[in-house]
Amino acid sequence: MRRLMNVRWIATALVILLLSGVCVELGRWQLHRLDARKARNEVTRTNLAAPAAPLAEIVGPQRVIGEQHDWRTAVVTGRYDASKQVVMRYRNVNDRPGFEIVTPLLLSDGSAVLVDRGFLPKQGGELAPSSIPAAPTGEVTVTGRLRRSERGGHTSGGTPDNGTARLINGPDFAPVLGLTLYDGYLTVEQQVPAADPAFGGFPGPEIDDGPHFFYALQWFFFALLAIGGLVYFSRRDVTGDNASTDSESEAPAESLPSATTATGAPRGPGGS
Fold first, then answer.
1. Partners of 147 in the beta sheet?
2. Tens place of pLDDT for every residue, the chain, 272 residues?
3. DSSP 67
4. Can you give the CATH number for the domain in which 156 is found?
5. Which of helix, strand or coil describes residue 126?
6. Is 74 inside a domain boundary?
7. CB within 8 A of 121, min separation 6: which ones?
8. Does the residue 87 lie in any domain?
9. Domain span at residue 178?
10. Is residue 24 part of a domain?
């Protein structure tokens, strides 16, 4: 028992309990992410089913495409400004690498919205698309899905550099392009005049619960495993200490003296 309660055992137990607590919190965090994903999926389903509406009517004067607008179908009319077109690098659609072409659409109120006109598959090892379909001239009506601005932490991928970027981000594009842009963008579903057939479309959203529930179970299992290991080895130490104490308390039996004569010969009956 003395060995069980020494400083090293206490320190080890505290570390195991701390790790178990961390595992539990990570499991709870995954469950929170699951709840958030379910709520987002419900918004997405509602937006996908909603009828198309004018962009300004959906977003409002703030010009911010938020989570509540994601995947909503919007209609907008304007003129493409091909001189401020941006090639999006390192894009991937259906596991195929390529580029996306984003062109600002100038609106009648003086603002503009970024329009992702489509995907161009990468040909070999090219670093830029060999040819880009020209944007239609004149008035264009675009029907497409609203998407929030892409953000990548502290990276500068959302700032166009020499006509290319990695993230589609309205606030980052605005000062470089010199436009009053919506915070967000639009992916083309239909366009009048029609979009160039060289452009590939985009897949719809993934509406599922993801792996969060199973990740949570894994973290909770790790916590139980750590606590179970602590209990098991503690009991083994206690059992070992008790067995050691019992064996030390047993004294060796003394040899009994044999009934022998002084000369070592046993006395018989009637002997003298």
1. 185
2. 555 557 777 888 888 889 999 999 999 999 999 999 898 899 899 999 999 999 999 999 999 999 999 999 999 999 999 999 999 999 999 889 999 999 999 999 999 999 999 999 998 888 889 899 999 999 999 999 999 999 875 555 778 888 999 999 999 999 999 999 999 999 999 999 999 999 998 888 888 888 999 999 999 999 999 888 888 877 776 675 555 555 555 545 554 455 444 444 455 444 44
3. G
4. 2.40.50.140
5. coil
6. yes
7. 96, 97, 98, 200
8. yes
9. 36-192
10. no
Q: How many domains does the chain have?
A: 1
Which residues lie closer than 8 Å to 168 by C-beta, 6 or more apart?
Answer: 88, 100, 102, 114, 116, 147, 149, 150, 158, 185
Structure confidence by residue, pLDDT tens digits, 40-64: 899 899 999 999 999 999 999 999 9
Structure tokens at 199: 């452009």
Q: Phi-psi region for residue 20, left (φ > 0), alpha (ψ -120 to 50) or beta? A: alpha
Q: What is the model's pTM?
A: 0.73
CA–CA gap between residue 242 and residue 248 (Å, rounded): 10
Which of 179, 181, 175 minimizes the C-alpha distance to 160? 175
Q: Please report whether residue 239 resides in a domain.
A: no
Beta pairing class for 53-54 and 96-106: unpaired
The residues, any chain, with a CB within 8 Å of residue 117's CB and separated by 6 or more, are: 100, 101, 102, 103, 133, 135, 188, 195, 199
Closest among 134, 127, 81 to 104, alpha carbons compared: 81
The closest of 73, 43, 66 to 182, measured between CA atoms, is 66
Q: Locate the DSSP E strands across 94-210.
A: 96-106, 112-121, 139-147, 164-165, 181-192
Tokens representing 240 are 């070992």
Q: Write out the two tokens for 200.
A: 């590939």
Contacts of 177 (CB under 8 A, 6+ apart): 84, 86, 104, 160
